[in-house]
Fold:
Amino acid sequence: MSDIKSIIFRDNKFKELSKHYGEKYQIEVSDKPGHNNFVLIDDNTKLFHKGSFITNSFNYGPFLNRIKNFEREHQLKKAISYKSIKPKRILDATAGLGHDAFMFALLGQSVTCIERNKGILILFEEALRMLPKETYYKNAKRRIEIINKDASEYTHNPQGHDLVYIDPMFEVSKKLRRNKSLSFINSYLGKEDDVTADFVKKNSFRRIVVKRPKNFKDFAFKESFVVSGSSVDFKVLVNS
Ligand SMILES: C[S@@+](CC[C@H](N)C(=O)[O-])C[C@H]1O[C@@H](n2cnc3c(N)ncnc32)[C@H](O)[C@@H]1O
Structure:
């Protein structure tokens, strides 16, 4: 897995924020152009890799549509056994840009987000920072805890979470390669291992939910049931 080597700011108004991330993630901060992989902090923070970049905004684009329709996340809700009166405590072991985690938070669930890649994690934090200052969003943000760690090293307290949610990277198909953001992340992260088998082996969660591409041949585990979506499946293992 590759990661960023520096945090860059061009406008002095982002100096303090850049230093904050630099100290938090132990990454060099500079106002000069960066190495191959770096994050540029501004009003629309960018993750650079090999000359191209991605952003991660929750305020516009296709993800805003998902946010507006969060109550229609029927498959996700089914997979976690959502009950509005009894919110779940979810461990999101592969938080990425935080899209699924933010859906959980909007649905009233509390989420511990584990992500090992610092560049990706800063994009997630920046998306939360740039949200409108409305109570509705503030409440969702309060339900999110972010931890920079490899999920396989995370020491889990069995009383702490009701379920673990895993969305590992998968090789993008030719069709999906047209999706700029997915192709970028695939190239930036490089070949990724799949932490699913680790969680299955530990057997410390009552429920394990794994997001998989359709028709994925799973060797990591045998699910109890599948919740089928239009482009992905949620494989659910319920431990008795
Ligand atoms: C497909 S993305 C997750 C997308 C996320 N569900 C979302 O909605 O934005 C997978 C992410 O898992 C992270 N990841 C993979 N293995 C991990 C591990 N063992 N521990 C922590 N993070 C991991 C990768 O760095 C990547 O950002």
In short: The chain has a mean pLDDT of 93. Residues 10 and 31 are 5 Å apart (CA to CA). Residues 94, 96-100, 114-117, 120, 150-152, 167-169, 189, 192, 195 surround S-adenosylmethionine (CB under 6 Å). Helices lie at 15-25, 62-68, 74-80, 99-106, 118-129, 135-142, 180-189, 196-202.
